[in-house]
Amino acid sequence: MLPISAAALAALGQATARPVLAEWSNDGGVTWQPVQFGAGQVTPDRTAEVRYAASVELLDAPRGRHGINSVTTEIRLCQGIQVPRRDVEWIPAGRYTIDRLKRTRLGVSLDLLGREDIVRGAGLPVARTVGPDTAQACAEQLLGEALPGSPIAWHERVKAGTALPAFVVDEDRWAAVSGGTDTSGTSTGIAASLGAEVYCDARGIPTFAPVPTLADPVVWEIPRGLVTAEPSEEETAEGLRNLWAVTGDAGSGDQVIGPVFRWDDDPESLTYAGPDPVEDPLAPQRLGLPGVRVRTGRYSSALITSIDQANDVAAAQLADSLGVQASLSFSSVCNPAIEPGDVVLVETAKDVWERHLVDSCPYTLGGVSMTCQTRTSTRRV
Fold it and tell me: Distance between CA atoms of 270 and 292, rounded to whole angstroms?
């Protein structure tokens, strides 16, 4: 969750003012110019390649080469929370590049994408070999060329010092940093090879973070009084994997790492894969567990060079593919500090609390409510 004071968090359900701040820059964020905000919506979504997207109307906006344009302009948005007898508390709501600009009678209408889009657009003109070096050095080289001067954040649980072999980046810079493949189909994404994910956060900072899990600390408890619409529950098996086989293979004939296996070993989980689906796949039949069904996922990367690294990747892949079959959609009082990947505790019925991981949380800028799409682990009844 983004930084927010205890006073602002406690006052979310009250009739507080919610001003919006919009600014633009044509010099990479060195200077920012305020512009009058009309209306708009922000869509933070962990399942999208671009973490933050938005659509806004700006009034009396300067246009052209020295004003707002679709080539050089970046837009920065903040959502304010006005607590009685306190100054406005500003929460970042994304830093964006302009995907589409439409002139209107009162100003401009903009479709905005997060700064990942800048990196995606900065494709390499020719194939290049990156490394051998640490994961941090390789990633910051690729990102720094597209976002000069931008800080890059590394979560302490991400092993930034992992040694990577030399690998070829054909064209797609963002895929090489996040989770792409080379021309042979072998995975080369730096973040994915660390069991991590990379995104541009609400401040526009490229961030390497662990794949979130339901075991992470709860950042916000949402009682029924803050839920403004009845939760809608849904289940699907799409994307579900309860067994992962991870291999380090450069495809060059050198030593292959693994495979390393990781599976759902919780007997109380609906996605339980059995006591040992690799070495003893008949155990569920022998033990009288007819409901056990194995769904296998495979991941191979040229950047995985050790068993420990393969274990990290397998754990991350498993965490990201469990629980997707049980989702919850609900509307609550808007908390603009919530980020995709946060774990929340939701009172879905009277005195019934469930732990959920937030996948998306769109909200109208200046509005009092937000919609959350979450997922959780389904338990056996």
Answer: 8
